[in-house]
Structures are given as structure tokens and as C-alpha cells.
Specification:
By secondary structure, the protein is mainly alpha-helical. It contains four helices and two strands, in the order H-H-H-E-E-H. A hairpin with a 5-residue loop joins strand 1 and strand 2 (112-114). The longest helix is centred in the first third of the chain and has 25 residues, at 28-52.
Length: 140
């Protein structure tokens, strides 16, 4: 049980790498939550067995070391991913409701398009009141 728990814990930490592969993102949070819980459950059951059945399991010290190592791995991975979310805010980024400075980018056909062009009225239609900017970090 201790080895299975340690293996599940390593898999739980490595499951965070699935975000960089093309895995359906809907199931990833559940995998990242269930694997560490199962790993800790197996580690605790293994530790209980090591202490309850000492004639069979002679690894009280080794079991305690594995459980402490597992808890340290869970704490380190939690601190790492919580700390990664506490990035400083960008001072130059526009705030909600603030006007964005004019810029020019290439559209999907490669033609340069500026923000001012998007606000111009097109053939008899009223000019748009707002523009929704979507920053897509995918593959074209």
C-alpha cells in the first residue's frame, strides 16, 4: 500500500504536465484532485497496516518515512501551484472599462487591422459601441 500510494503521488504530480499535451481540459481538474487524495489514502492505509500488523509489516520506520515524504511532496506541489497564481499584476495593462490605446495587429488573413478601423462605421451600419478582444493562445 505504501508503494502504491507513493506511485500514485508521483503520478498526481506528473498529471499537471497533461495541461501541456492535447488532453481534453474538462477532465484534468478532476484527475489533479482525485489522484493526490487517493495517494494520501493509500499512504495512510499502508502506514496503519505497518503499525497495526507489525509482525507482518516490519517497516514502521520506512512506512513513516514514506508517508512524511508523501506529505512533503503534496505540500511542495501545492505551494508551487498556489505560488504560481500569485504573479504580480501588470502595471501597464488596461483595467476594466478603461480605453485601450490604438494598436495594429495582423488578422487571420495576414492583413493589418487597427483598433480604430474596427470602430469605423461600415456601409450604412452604425459604428459599433464596443470591441471584444480575445487573446487566443492556441494554434492557427
Amino acid at each position: 500500500m505504501l508503494w502504491v500510494g507513493l506511485l500514485l503521488l508521483v503520478l498526481a504530480i506528473l498529471s499537471n504536465l497533461l495541461y501541456f499535451l492535447r488532453v481534453p481540459a474538462a477532465s484534468l481538474p478532476w484527475v489533479n484532485l482525485i489522484l493526490p487524495v487517493l495517494a494520501l489514502l493509500f499512504l495512510l492505509i499502508g502506514l496503519f497496516r505497518a503499525f497495526a500488523q507489525s509482525q507482518i509489516y516490519r517497516g514502521k520506520i520506512w512506512g513513516s518515512v514514506v508517508v512524511v515524504l508523501g506529505l512533503l511532496l503534496v505540500a511542495a506541489s501545492t505551494l508551487f501551484f498556489v505560488g504560481a497564481r500569485k504573479l504580480p499584476r501588470s502595471g501597464g495593462a488596461p483595467q476594466i472599462g478603461q480605453r485601450v490605446p490604438d494598436f495594429t495587429l495582423s488578422d487571420s488573413t495576414g492583413q493589418p487591422t487597427s483598433l480604430a478601423q474596427l470602430f469605423l462605421a461600415s456601409s450604412g451600419a452604425p459604428p459599433p459601441k464596443a470591441v471584444l478582444l480575445v487573446f487566443y493562445r492556441g494554434y492557427w
